[in-house]
Amino acid sequence: MSLDEIFNDPILSKRRSGTTPDDPYVFMSETREVINEVLNLTEIPNRLERVRVVSDTPMYEITDGELKENYFRVDYAQGDVFFHPSQNGKSFTVEYKGEGVHYFPHRRVWTKHNGITVTETLEDIVNISNDKIDEVEQKIDEAEQAIIDTNNATSDYTTVVNDTKKIYKGVVNLISDLQTTFPNPEVGWTVGVRENKTEYRWDSSEWKPVGISDTPEGFTITVSENPPLSGHTLWLDVAEESRTARVVMSATEPEDDTQIWWQIDE
Length: 266
What we know:
Elements: H1 3-7, E1 12-15, E2 26-33, E3 38-40, E4 52-54, E5 60-61, E6 71-75, E7 80-83, E8 91-98, E9 100-103, E10 110-114, E11 117-121, H2 122-164, E12 167-172, H3 177-181, E13 189-193, E14 198-202, E15 207-212, E16 219-224, E17 235-237, E18 243-250, E19 260-263
Parallel strand pairs: 5-6, 12-13, 16-17, 18-19
Antiparallel strand pairs: 1-9, 2-8, 3-7, 4-8, 6-7, 10-11, 13-14, 14-15, 16-18
């Protein structure tokens, strides 16, 4: 870090005047833990009002000399209270008049050092954290895009299925029968029409022809003067040689005279 960067990144202070009724020093009472022999105050304490440490055992403030177990020393410029090593890990309630606070830029707060050389600052940690946050946000964006792509693929698949699926619902004689027989069709319903031997499919708005219907015309019966051996066969009793004939249902007479015509209305 260059000196120019340091001078352009100063410590900022927000201090109360303490001399006017509308800007007095504020009484502070806070309980904090002693870590590495130091208790950090929230604000800068007023030197004239002094700092009081509340404890079952009386604690005495000194300004210099060796810190004994029941003594403490205050840095009134930084807001730090120093204790004897035996007080590490203990919590004390501290009372004082707060003058305000100092704000340190993150590049001026060290977190690691080697002797008197600073090897890591809070800025380094913040930058690393921001990089990790950026990586996480990128992963989130990629995951969200993957979800969008999956939804699109699912939508495309659903569209293909809806455009191609066939649910066979039987056969009708005339095209006009589609509307009357199936007044509320669903997408994919497919019906054969005998009239023009065409298969129709409902595509959500209309019946569309989709191919030649392979629906058999009519049904097969036995034509003879003697009843058939099988009781499950339809029999047309006529005085002619026994044969199998196809019954054709249509409005016009079939050209094949071997078929039996079942005339229906046009």
